[in-house]
Amino acid sequence: MENNESFSWGSTITAPHMYPIEIHKGYLADDKKMITAYMNTGISTGDWGYGNNAYAGGNSIPTNLSLTWISFADKKFWKIEATLPKEKIFKFFQEGYMNKDRKGVWSHVTYKDITVGLAPGGLVVVWLTGLNRSVEIAHFQAKETFVSVDEFYRNPHEYTQDEFYNFRFKSYLPRESQAYIKEKGVPVDLWKDYRTKYNYRFNIHFYKADKESSDRRLKYVNGEEEIIEVKDINSYQNKALPSYGRFFFSQHNAEVQFDDEEILNAFKKLTAVHPDKSIDIEAKVAFMYKTTTFTVKCEGEEIPLEKTVVKMWKN
Fold it and tell me: Which of 11, 32, 141, 305 is the most interior residue, by most CB within 10 Å?
């Protein structure tokens, strides 16, 4: 891959879970021509960092992103016109990464997709994504724009602009999101906060002697994902906060889903009181591996992560 001059990739669109969007139009282009077009293919949502709506791609590195879309939570249209970091993208493709397949075999692979994430408030994040891997390569702030309901789609009900926004909000935004917005407002800064990196590590305590196997799989609140090899597992690292984890012990496995806002608020609180200090996410594996509890700790102060969902099973 280091000697390759071009890489084949696809393009995907995503939005935060429970905050769907819908594309109006757009494209990815290089210095000479359009590579792939974005068009309205329906609602986009899914995992932040991994796209559900797939479009055609190319094999030349894009330099320009143009995109217009509606955010149902905001009741707004947004537009981005941005220059992508061509050399950075090309370097990531060339370097690739090590991936572990289902048989436990490690191999050197590279990325498959350029994924564009669209969050409430007009935040745009671009990742390179592949098997068990997602890495951010750019982020931008879109500008609010106007697209008339009649231009956006056929309007047999003759909705006014406000009626259209309200209908889409009530029909397409999950009830949980509607209730959250009613109580706290649209979380326009949340995904910006998720990009913040902290110096932390996992500190695992077992009821009886045990250890992790050779790797740990983690997804982060900023949409990135990786498999960490055992040599890096116990060191403090400057990373975004974990959203999901797979932990492999000698005889049992654990699957962990953190509450993103809970862990963010815990880290914000501790870093405000203990600035520039490293933080532990302490994991205690219970008797007979019935469950694992997680607590954020720093200099004797601790905050339990009570909303964390843990599944345990024998491997």
Answer: 11
Residue ranges of domains in the chain: 9-145, 194-314
Q: What is the DSSP string of 105-170?
A: -EEEE---EEEEEE-GGGEEEEEEEETTEEEEEEEEE-EEE---HHHHS--TT---HHHHHHHHHH
22 token code pair: 């819908």
> Minimal CA–CA distance to 79: which of 164, 11, 147?
147
The amino acid occupying position 94 is Q
pLDDT given at position 123: 98
Give 63-85 pLDDT, tens digit per residue: 999 999 999 999 999 999 999 99
Retrieve residue 12's tokens: 């995907």
* pTM beyond cutoff 0.90: yes
Residue type, 310: V
Tokens coding 155: 């309007």
Decide: helix, strand or coil at residue 262.
Answer: helix
H or E segment to which residue 272 belongs: helix 260-273
Residue 93, token pair as written in the block: 């493709």
Give dist(CA 203, CA 32) in Å, integer.
51
**pLDDT value at residue 255:** 93
